[in-house]
Design a protein that fits this description.
Chain A: InterPro entries: NAD(P)H_OxRDtase_bac/plastid (IPR023043), NADH_UbQ/plastoQ_OxRdtase_su3 (IPR000440), NDAH_ubi_oxred_su3_sf (IPR038430). The complex is a heterodimer of chains A (122) and B (365). Chain A has two helices and no strands. With 122 residues, chain A is mainly alpha-helical. Chain A has one domain: Up-down Bundle (Methane Monooxygenase Hydroxylase, Chain G, domain 1). The longest helix of chain A is centred in the last third of the chain and has 55 residues, at 62-116. The termini of chain A are far apart. The relative contact order of chain A is 0.05. The longest helix of chain B has 51 residues, at 5-55. In chain B, helix 1 (5-55) crosses helix 9 (253-278). Chain B contains 13 helices and no strands. Classes of the chains: A mainly alpha (122), B mainly alpha (365). At the A-B interface, helix 1 and helix 2 of A face helix 1, helix 3, helix 4, helix 5 and helix 9 of B.
Amino acid sequence: MLDTMLGNYFPILLFILVGLLVGTLCLVAGWLLAPNKPDAEKLSTYECGFGAFEDARMKFDVRYYLIAILFILFDLEIAFLFPWAVALKEVGLFGFVAMLVFLGLLVVGFIYEWAKGALEWD
Amino acid sequence: MDSFQPLFEQLFGSEWGVPLFLLAKNLLLILAIIIPLLLAVAYLTFAERKIIAFMQVRVGPNRVTFFGIPWLGGWGQPIADAVKAIMKEIIIPTGANKFLFLLAPILAITPALAAWAVVPFSPELVLADINAALLYILAMTSLGVYGVIIAGWASNSKYAFLGAMRSAAQVISYELAMGFALVCVLMMSSSLNLGDIVAGQQGGSFLNWYMIPLFPMFLVYFISGVAETNRLPFDVAEGESEIVAGFHVDYSGMAFTIFFLAEYANMILVATLTSIMFLGGWLPPVDIAPFNLIPSIVWLLLKIAIMLFFFLWFRATFPRYRYDQIMRLGWKVFIPITLIWIVLLGAVMQLPEAALQSFPLNLWF
């Protein structure tokens, strides 16, 4: 029999599957009901009135890459903060000071990246 | 509903009856969430057009009606739009990666719908009452960015590519501020369960809501929510005047409509989460006679509607931000504010028990 833990998470799995199904069904409905008369001009990539000169998968600004790396760092920090925040009333002063040390280290990194100009966009 | 269980056991035998009953029951409950949600999305687009029209001293859509009833003028518009969208050709550009091009809209809508699995609508009305609800929602809303970036890459169009890069960087930046704001809520509530978070705001009046002690976090969370859903004034990812429509420039017909649905479903989700975590969810503003007689779900829906109105109001009021201004707001304003507030809140919570039990701290701790 389904135990309570699995019983609680089963509707979520089902919901994700239904979500996938909704998206798929919408596409299938569009494909079935809509006309389909392609021609070369219609299928060409959108560009301002002329054919595309080159492939669109070009080099892009390194700052996007930098943002992604910084995001990983800070998102991990949030992942650490979540259980700490939930348990803060139990871990008390010791837990608070321990997290202050951890946050302090990350803030030093944050100030460094700020000073280095990693967050500038001009 | 559980009274149908014996019927299933009779029909399919005792071994298959119970799982099949659970499947059917949960599917019905899921449809009972998704169908009203999709209707709400449809009428949110109508509300948006009407409200912005009135703010600009126009009338807005007022022609399409049901059965020719004149005073319903305009109310048929979302249905007409849906029918039109479904009848439009889905164009897949020659340069595009077909599989990813069609996968992207599905990846955009799935998390936008699936996040609703754990949202409580009233103390009893919740599909999956799990302990890690907030973690699950954070995970689901993070997945939304895949739809955007895959759409931009698969289209093989420069506009789509630029839009996807901008959108992805913006969404992940604001997710940080959002996550830090959530940490503050968790510190107050000591629980990831959304029902427990609302229960923690109980106590008689709106003064107990987390909006009051966490007011800056409330603003950060809501503004980050606006930025996360790529809504004006943070819609450089779509910026019509610069990159036409951003990541979904090559999408048409139903494929485009799915992105549209996902965006509006996410808007409603952000409004709902803001209501639950900061505005006391289904709790009435004052716990006295006329207010606490109104069913709790009405209060929740009212709060969601108010937050959604803010989305539309922002759109009608503010000009679009420049991209560097958006990134500055996210990284250099919101993240420092949230970090400082976490430390401040943590310090206040270390005060001796007697201090926490005196006014006004006794309202929240």
